[in-house]
């Protein structure tokens, strides 16, 4: 599910999966569950209802940890990680002003940069990534370091 409306249609992008194997069926089921976990968060962000029965999930699961590590330690986009980032903010008591400002207050990047004294969007993204890394470390330092090392290893292969 996309997070920006397409200019030509005014609609959000979506991807459908049609499994043709057992592995494909497992993938489709897993992604459907992920969409259900993220449905309410995406609906609040986009202002559009998603036609699935949402799952009330506030705990961080393994997929969330992987997404959060991809955001904190690699190049995963912020809006692609909305669900896991929102669940992280629910669990974490740290201030995280760059992240909370964007996701909870829906403050624009420009206004956040002014508020936080940052020179631009790239610096804001660096601050948001740093905050997520700090939050992961605060929740489970050993797991965060293990995921960081795994992500950094993958970066050398691509």
Automatic annotation (TrEMBL):
State if Acyltransferase is listed as a keyword. yes
Q: What Gene3D superfamilies would the database entry show?
A: tRNA(Met) cytidine acetyltransferase, tail domain (1.20.120.890)
Keyword list, A-Z = Acyltransferase, Transferase
**Keyword Transmembrane helix among UniProt keywords:** no
The entry lists its GO molecular-function terms as:
acyltransferase activity
Tell me its EC number(s), please.
2.3.1.193
Boundaries of every tRNA(Met) cytidine acetyltransferase TmcA tRNA-binding domain copy: 24-141
**InterPro entries (UniProt xref):** TmcA_C_sf, TmcA_tRNA_bind
Q: Which residues form a coiled coil?
A: none
What is the designated name of this protein? ATP-dependent acetyltransferase
Origin species, per record, is Citrobacter koseri
Could you read off the lineage of the organism from its UniProt record? Bacteria, Pseudomonadati, Pseudomonadota, Gammaproteobacteria, Enterobacterales
Q: Which gene encodes it?
A: tmcA_3
């Amino acid at each position: 599910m996309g997070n920006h409306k397409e200019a030509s249609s005014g609609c959000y992008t979506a991807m459908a999966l049609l499994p043709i194997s057992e592995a494909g069926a497992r993938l489709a089921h897993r992604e459907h569950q992920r969409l259900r976990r993220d449905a309410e968060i995406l609906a609040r962000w986009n202002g559009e209802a998603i036609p699935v029965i949402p799952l009330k999930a506030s705990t961080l699961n393994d997929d969330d940890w992987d997404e959060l590590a991809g955001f904190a330690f690699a190049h995963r986009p912020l809006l692609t990680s909305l669900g896991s980032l929102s669940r992280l903010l629910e669990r974490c008591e740290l201030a995280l002003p760059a992240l909370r400002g964007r996701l909870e207050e829906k403050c624009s990047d420009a206004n956040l940069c002014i508020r936080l004294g940052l020179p631009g969007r790239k610096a804001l993204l660096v601050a948001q990534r740093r905050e997520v890394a700090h939050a992961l470390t605060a929740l489970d330092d050993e797991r965060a370091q293990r995921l960081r090392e795994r992500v950094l290893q993958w970066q050398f292969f691509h």
